[in-house]
Design a protein that fits this description.
heterodimer, A: 423 residues, alpha+beta, 6-stranded mixed sheet, 7 helices, B: 309 residues, alpha/beta, 4-stranded antiparallel barrel, 10 strands, 32% helix, binds guanosine-5'-diphosphate
Chain lengths: 423, 309
């Protein structure tokens, strides 16, 4: 059984909570006691029906305000797949939350209210999903019951969305007409929309092919931890030296000729260990321990890759940056801590080239700052060289976070475009 | 089974392999970036799985950090026996944070009465142990599917000087780039099993042959019914009027303080039978078996703010 992570996006009241509640309910991920709690609350509020949306409403502050405020993770499984939903709310803090939820998603689900059609927010959601490199986009046109199950309305929304999406880098785009409230086309195909020839949403989620989304070409192994057993009783392990980490790209095999960055020393992979014994090959996102044939000096933050396929090595990087904090805007000249793969350093924001209006995709080249939820293109210089790839080629070696050194807060999310001067 | 090795030719991982890899990544990241991590180990199934993953993360080297048990003093004997044996097998160091000691020292006041529970006051010895040992990262086995308030908790959950959690002031967590920076006096709780469900845990236990205390499997026990749950007869609980002890075939779905952890009636004596029951079960494990969580709908959230696990 495979794992699929998806992020949901929608404006307030598009029916996102209802849809998630229904997916969980119909796939039996909702337990009786949870349902009873929701029924009690619904009854107390005087709702006409049990509000499935309450199932996904977590913290007290939200219950009081009646809105969701952060990314929440939900789980359900069918016999075919296990699903992790990153549920992101649709209001002001939207960008920060969606960027967070989307960073690990294989698929994005964008909700549109059939009556309201494609809104500014829908475009923003689609843009963010593609910026974050989510390979599959599913647009659910919801509340079809309120537009008389109209095929014409569905086609209209589809055409409008498509014409916008053409400007984006969308690989796989699908449209499904649904009614989250009544369950049409959510788990079972709807009897109310004979004209729709596609599959239900759940079926689509089960069948989307995600295995080929990963980069299996560029071998990248950021060293996370050096394993050196210090066991006085077991002399066999005396010389054991392994480099533990999570494969970030490509396929590694014993016998591969590799280079260690930044030293540039070359050697071969002697063995790849897991706790269950040696493995014949390792690929992303396996967590393994690599042993090298020669006694080269390797430490955390180093990168092992193939001799003839190396990442960019450098300190000057172009990136799209999303600003995540309300405590102060980003300006050129800012100095921040940076984390990229397993490497920490410091970064200087040399230049804010433009701020992107994520609704119109207009570039404001006169912008001097990035505030919370704003996205812009920056040039940055790091104190240590980073071993990176373009984000669209590899999400693991193409992403970075920026941390405020005074508060230790994560304040920026960066998507690498390439080395300065080239990208 | 080997969960780390690919089983499909087209470079796919099963969901258990993917969850395992993610958890190992988190555990290694903490070991690399913190000076004094510690792993909570209650002997329960989630912490047994977490410990198993930690052992795998550093093999063939030993666990590079100690384990800690917050001991309410109201334990199932089988669980303590299991805890001590596992710790000895691994050659790990065990730190016990004792609720009884905290009570004896007058640091907390134990609840009294027939429904007295020590669950809530565990927070005091826990925070004290963190402070006195200087632990800067504490691994916990909590899962996001357990309870609504947990659904939003980060994998790296930041705590202030008082060990408190502020749900509105969490660090954004992107990709697998965890930010473990902290100031002196603060610490981080880390939840490597965040994305696991109860069913995943059982499937993994079966696939990896993870050893668990015997009370997880069906056995006969002297129990009585309270609030719709079966509680074990023990020296620490007083029966209320109308409550009667009887022998039943039961098993436990979680392991906590013996005074408030309920058993369920079940004939499931093997992992296969438990997995089958779990796959069709309609009640969350906390709802079914934890009296302490029933206090209020927001019960868990309130306790987490105070510094609970
Ligand atoms: N008629 C109809 N109402 C819906 C549908 N889906 C959601 N709603 C209603 O729309 C409102 C907003 O839904 P909710 O799920 O809370 O929206 P969210 O803000 O996107 O999470 C609620 O009153 C829902 O009952 C649908 O398919 N048809």
């Amino acid at each position: 059984m495979e794992l699929l992570r998806f992020a949901t996006a929608g404006s307030v009241d598009d029916g996102k909570s209802t849809l998630i509640g229904r997916l969980l309910y119909d796939s039996k991920a909702i337990f009786e006691d949870q349902l009873e709690a929701v029924e009690r609350t619904s009854l107390a509020r005087g709702d006409a029906y049990t509000d499935l949306a309450l199932l996904t409403d977590g913290l007290r502050a939200e219950r009081e305000q009646g809105i969701t405020i952060d990314v929440a993770y939900r789980y359900f499984a069918t016999p075919k797949r296990k699903f992790i939903i990153a549920d992101t709310p649709g209001h002001i803090q939207y960008t920060r939350n969606m960027v967070t939820g989307a960073s690990t998603a294989d698929l994005a689900l964008v909700l549109i209210d059939a009556r309201r059609g494609v809104l500014e927010q829908s475009r923003r959601h689609a843009f963010l999903a593609t910026l974050l490199g989510i390979p599959h986009l599913v647009v659910c046109v919801n509340k079809m019951d309120l537009v008389g199950w109209s095929q014409e309305r569905f086609e209209e929304i589809k055409a409008e969305f498509r014409s916008f999406a053409m400007r984006l880098d969308v690989h796989d785009l699908s449209f499904i007409p649904i009614s989250a409230l009544h369950g049409d086309n959510v788990v079972e195909r709807s009897a109310n929309m004979d004209w729709y020839e596609g599959t239900s949403l759940l079926h689509h989620l089960e069948e989307t092919h995600i295995a080929s989304d990963r980069n299996l070409i560029d071998a990248r192994f950021p060293v996370q931890y050096v394993v050196r057993p210090q066991d006085q009783h077991n002399h066999d392990l005396h010389d054991y030296r392994g480099y533990a980490g999570t494969v970030a790209g490509g396929v590694l095999k014993p016998g591969d000729e590799v280079v260690v960055l930044p030293s540039g020393l070359t050697t071969t992979i002697a063995a790849i260990d897991s706790a269950d014994g040696a493995v014949a090959e390792a690929f992303a996102p396996m967590a393994v321990t690599v042993r090298l044939a020669d006694d080269v000096d390797v430490s955390r933050g180093d990168m092992i890759c193939r001799v003839r396929n190396r990442p960019h090595v450098g300190q000057d990087i172009e990136a799209m940056l999303c600003w995540l904090t309300p405590q102060g805007d980003l300006r050129a000249g800012a100095k921040l801590a940076i984390k990229h793969t397993t490497r920490w350093g410091r970064a200087l924001i040399k230049d804010l080239q433009y701020r992107l209006d994520i609704n119109t995709l207009h570039r404001d080249e006169h912008a001097g700052t990035l505030a919370l939820n704003e996205i812009g293109r920056v040039s940055l210089r790091t104190t240590v060289p980073l071993f990176f790839d373009e984000y669209r080629r590899n999400r693991a070696t193409g992403s970075l976070i920026l941390v405020d050194e005074a508060t230790n807060n994560t304040v920026g999310a960066g998507i690498i475009l390439g080395p300065t001067g080239v990208a | 089974m080997s969960t780390s090795a690919p089983t499909q030719p087209d470079y796919e991982l099963t969901h258990l392999q993917a969850l395992e890899a993610e958890a190992i990544h988190v555990i290694r990241e903490v070991a690399a970036e913190f000076e004094r991590p510690v792993m909570l180990f209650s002997g329960g199934k989630d912490s047994a799985v977490m410990l198993h993953l930690a052992v795998k993360a550093f093999a063939p080297a030993r666990l590079p950090f100690p384990v800690m048990h917050v001991d309410t003093g109201h334990n199932f004997a089988e669980v303590i026996e299991f805890r001590d044996r596992r710790v000895a097998e691994l050659g790990a160091r065990l730190v016990v944070a004792s609720v009884q000691d905290a009570i004896d020292a007058g640091k907390v006041v134990a609840e009294t009465g027939p429904r007295a529970s020590r669950n809530r006051i565990q927070t005091v010895p826990l925070l004290e142990a963190i402070e006195s040992h200087g632990f800067d990262a504490v691994f916990g086995g909590a899962r996001r599917d357990e309870e609504k308030a947990r659904a939003k908790e980060r994998v790296f959950s930041f705590r202030d000087d008082f060990g408190q959690w502020d749900p509105k002031n969490q660090r954004p967590e992107l990709w697998n780039l965890y930010n473990g920076r902290y100031r002196k006096g603060e610490h981080i709780r880390v939840f490597p099993l965040s994305n696991w469900t109860e069913l995943d845990i059982w499937q993994y236990v079966a696939a990896e042959d993870v050893e668990l205390p015997s009370i997880y499997f069906a056995h006969t026990r002297r129990v009585f019914q309270r609030d719709g749950m079966w509680l074990a007869e023990s020296p620490w609980v007083t029966l209320l009027d109308g409550e009667e002890v009887e022998e039943r075939t039961v098993r436990f779905r979680t392991v906590g303080d013996a005074t408030c952890t309920g058993a369920i009636e079940s004939p499931a004596a093997t992992l296969a039978a438990i997995i089958e029951e779990t796959a069709v079960t309609r009640i969350t494990e906390r709802g079914a078996t934890r009296a302490d969580d029933r206090i209020s709908e927001a019960g868990m959230e309130d306790r987490k703010r105070e510094g609970y696990f």
